[in-house]
């Protein structure tokens, strides 16, 4: 699959051949749904668990006599009514993590990239800007017709100046190629890949 390469400001910069094994896979809604569900479940945070009676280090020795003390009969300092005791009916730790095999994860990423290759994929030569300012970057993106939610994926790492400028633009997110994932790709209107990112993603599946 051959696509046009442009500069970040929208000017033409040649062509690039995309690997059909990575960018030409027919997407399946059931697999993409399964991958997205897996990612979102693994992102869920859990409440900090509280310590119950069995979790606190207090003595279990009976500390008062059975009768004649004028107080209730207690045999455990870990009871919830004492300072330092375990909490009754406290928050429990909940684990939402799911397992998913590597082959299915790889296939899901290929399908997400392929769905954007059909509609919503832009390849740029690099993210280098003469003036790494938010206003200048917005002007380039507008000139290139990149509106809505835009996900920019670079190669090994992201240029710090570009990352800071993009961080001030709502709807524009930047990731290195190693951080490319199905949910973020599908959750944006346009996917922008640098030539380095294309090479990294193709090597990731060939390696």
Automatic annotation (TrEMBL):
<protein>
    <recommendedName>
        <fullName>Large ribosomal subunit protein uL4</fullName>
    </recommendedName>
</protein>
<keyword id="KW-0694">RNA-binding</keyword>
<dbReference type="InterPro" id="IPR002136">
    <property type="entry name" value="Ribosomal_uL4"/>
</dbReference>
<comment type="function">
    <text>One of the primary rRNA binding proteins, this protein initially binds near the 5'-end of the 23S rRNA. It is important during the early stages of 50S assembly. It makes multiple contacts with different domains of the 23S rRNA in the assembled 50S subunit and ribosome.</text>
</comment>
<dbReference type="InterPro" id="IPR013005">
    <property type="entry name" value="Ribosomal_uL4-like"/>
</dbReference>
<keyword id="KW-0689">Ribosomal protein</keyword>
<dbReference type="Pfam" id="PF00573">
    <property type="entry name" value="Ribosomal_L4"/>
</dbReference>
<keyword id="KW-0687">Ribonucleoprotein</keyword>
<dbReference type="GO" id="GO:0005840">
    <property type="term" value="C:ribosome"/>
</dbReference>
<comment type="function">
    <text>Forms part of the polypeptide exit tunnel.</text>
</comment>
<dbReference type="InterPro" id="IPR023574">
    <property type="entry name" value="Ribosomal_uL4_dom_sf"/>
</dbReference>
<keyword id="KW-0699">rRNA-binding</keyword>
<comment type="subunit">
    <text>Part of the 50S ribosomal subunit.</text>
</comment>
<comment type="similarity">
    <text>Belongs to the universal ribosomal protein uL4 family.</text>
</comment>
């Amino acid at each position: 699959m051959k696509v046009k390469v442009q500069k970040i400001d929208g000017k033409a910069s040649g062509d690039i051949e995309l690997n059909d094994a990575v960018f030409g896979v027919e997407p399946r809604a059931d697999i993409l749904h399964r991958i997205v569900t897996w990612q979102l479940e693994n992102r869920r945070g859990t409440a900090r668990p509280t310590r119950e009676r069995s979790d606190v280090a207090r003595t279990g020795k009976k500390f008062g006599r059975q009768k004649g003390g004028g107080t209730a009969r207690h045999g455990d300092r870990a009871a919830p009514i004492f300072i330092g005791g375990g909490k009754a009916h406290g928050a429990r730790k909940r684990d939402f993590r799911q397992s998913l095999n590597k082959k299915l994860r790889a296939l899901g990423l290929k399908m997400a990239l392929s769905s954007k290759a059909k509609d919503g994929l832009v390849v740029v030569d690099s993210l280098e800007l003469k003036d790494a300012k938010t206003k200048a970057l917005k002007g380039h993106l507008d000139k290139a017709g990149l509106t809505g939610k835009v996900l920019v994926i670079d190669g090994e790492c992201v240029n710090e100046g570009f990352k800071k400028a993009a961080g001030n633009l709502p709807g524009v997110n930047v990731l290195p190629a190693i951080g490319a994932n199905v949910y973020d790709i599908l959750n944006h209107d346009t996917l922008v890949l640098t030539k380095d990112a294309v090479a990294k993603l193709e090597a990731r599946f060939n390696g």
